[in-house]
Design brief:
- The structure is a single chain.
- The chain has about 350 residues and is mostly helical.
- Helix content is about 65%, strand content about 0%.
- It has one domain: ADP-ribosylation/Crystallin J1 (ADP-ribosylglycohydrolase fold, Orthogonal Bundle), CATH 1.10.4080.
- The protein has 20 helices and no strands.
- Helix 2 packs across helix 17, helix 3 packs parallel to helix 20 and helix 4 packs across helix 5.
- The radius of gyration is 18 Å and the shape is globular.
- It binds ADP-ribosyl-L-arginine and magnesium ion (MG) (2 copies).
- ADP-ribosyl-L-arginine binds next to helix 3, helix 8 and helix 18.
- One magnesium ion binds next to helix 3 and helix 18.
């Protein structure tokens, strides 16, 4: 499809759900042989499966809140979004939430709360969470706001409802930027795509709070930029092993150890790879590769799925995969409403 086409919107939202549902099988596994990944993915084509047998987790549960809030309020409303997170958690607490964020979600349901950002600030002795929970749910921000500066501003605020550490919310900003650029067709030129992300993040990380957090956590001066430069190095190598990717970029629950990894998965799978089936298209390759890294597989596949889906569009997503994943069909429908909101913001084009 063309730039910001409906197909790309659907691909992004459905790709994220697919990654979460399909990746849930291996979340927390240290080593995942590609053979096991392919067996799992092949089982989705099995007729006895289907009808949402693979349940979505917190990644999708929270993304759905983001979507509903952005649509209902026709923009970002922190009170409304916070309320939706709290309500969703109270109705379905068993979706595999991070152990820290549960405290925030419980406090957010209190009616006496005057500042919805305060519970997040209180996390981890006032340091705030650097988990990837802000990034895992951020794709809808890129689908609601056509303007890059709005994407940056609101994805940051949306993440800060639960993640007040800059290594948490800036991961969300990076993921939102990646979906935004992919939606514009920027992955046609991968080196330039990465260059744009670096240029944006150089500015995003050039902030007092970010510098302080990086120093306190003994990270590079601009941690996300540093990781993006590592991605550039990895892309320049003729061969890269799974072990090298895990070592350079990580596969963990911290945003710093998963958002750049998800971006790398998409870039690496733009072309056919020896370790992956010939019959696979780019989106299937991205899913398989994300799972084979092990670690936080549902979240890495969810984030990679959103970026890849925005690039390839809905047409490449296997029907059998859609049927197996809870919430995939609904995501396709709501993507249409986000598409309308996005283009309405551009003057009804
Ligand atoms: N939680 C999981 N998976 C593990 C358990 C699965 C489930 N309980 C089961 O039953 O199998 N997955 C989901 O959590 C991740 C997103 O987490 P989020 O929303 O960022 O939560 P939180 O609690 O804020 O952060 C996650 C952990 O990171 C560490 N951490 C964060 N900030 C820290 C800090 N400043 N200092 C020290 N540690 C910090 C803590 O261990 C947090 O618990 C996604 O993977 C999602 O799928
Ligand atoms: Mg999850
Ligand atoms: Mg996860």
């Amino acid at each position: 499809g063309g730039m910001a086409s409906l197909s790309r919107f659907k691909g992004a939202l459905v790709g994220a759900v697919l990654g979460d549902c399909v990746g849930g099988e291996f979340e927390g596994a240290e080593e995942v042989p590609m053979e096991n990944v392919l067996l799992h993915l092949n089982s989705l084509d099995d007729d006895t499966k289907g009808d949402g047998t693979l349940e979505y987790s917190d990644d999708t549960a929270m993304a759905r809140c983001v979507v509903q809030s952005l649509l209902t309020r026709a923009g970002f409303d922190e009170q409304d979004m916070a309320r939706r997170f709290a309500k969703e958690y109270s109705l379905a607490p068993g979706r595999g939430y991070g152990s820290g964020v549960i405290q925030v979600l419980k406090k957010l349901s209190s009616s006496q709360l005057s500042d919805v950002y305060q519970p997040a600030r209180d996390q981890f002795n006032g340091r705030g969470s650097f988990g990837n929970g802000g990034a895992m749910r951020v794709a809808p921000f890129a689908l609601a706001f056509p303007d890059l500066s709005d994407v940056k501003k609101y994805s940051r605020s949306g993440a800060m409802l639960t993640h007040s550490c800059s290594l948490g919310y800036n991961g969300a900003v990076l993921q939102a930027l990646a979906v935004h650029l992919s939606l514009q067709g920027a992955l046609e030129l991968p080196a330039q795509f990465l260059g744009k992300l670096i240029a944006e993040m150089e500015e995003v990380e050039d902030e007092e709070a970010a510098r302080n957090d990086a120093r306190a956590l003994k990270e590079a001066e601009k941690p996300f930029c540093e990781r993006l430069y590592r991605i550039r190095d990895l892309m320049d190598r003729s061969k890269v092993s799974i072990e090298e990717v895990i070592c350079e970029l990580g596969n963990g629950i911290a945003a710093l150890h998963s958002v750049p990894t998800a971006i790398f998965c998409v870039l690496h799978c733009l072309q056919p790879r020896e370790s992956l089936p010939q019959r696979y298209g780019g989106l299937e390759r991205t899913m398989a590769y994300s799972l084979a890294l092990g670690g936080d597989t549902d979240t890495i596949a969810c984030m990679a799925g959103a970026i890849a889906g925005a690039h390839y569009g809905i047409e490449v997503i296997p029907e059998a995969w859609m049927k197996c994943c809870e919430g995939a069909k609904e995501a396709e429908v709501t993507a249409q409403r986000l598409h309308a909101l996005y283009h309405q913001g551009q003057g009804g084009a």
